[in-house]
Amino acid sequence: MCLGIPMQVVSCQGSTALCEIQGVQHQIDLSLVGGQPVGQWVLVFLGAAREVISSERAKQVQQALLAVESVMRGEATDLDLLFADLVNREPKLPDHLKASLESSVD
């Protein structure tokens, strides 16, 4: 399993950037997302930025990762607080699956 880590661009030079998460800086490959301005959030997998994300999305991912860490440590955590964006929300099917479901009902 590969987890995406949200990191913020500190400096950018060509197809690489110095990015930071929790005070730790990493050299990140930007080949898939292109050069990014300082302050931009990117979702990083195995040393490469795969997606440009908003600060709100970065916070959601960070909270989800905190929840996973808490569960792995066996700590009782209010997971609803860490997954607030999912509480009281019905899952939505992607459009291509909705179409498939509707055609199978007909």
UniProtKB/TrEMBL annotation:
One of its GO terms (biological process) is protein maturation. It comes from Neptunomonas concharum. NCBIfam families: hypC_hupF (TIGR00074). Belongs to the HupF/HypC family. Signal peptide: none annotated. It comes from the Bacteria. GO terms for molecular function: carbon dioxide binding; iron ion binding. This is HypC/HybG/HupF family hydrogenase formation chaperone.
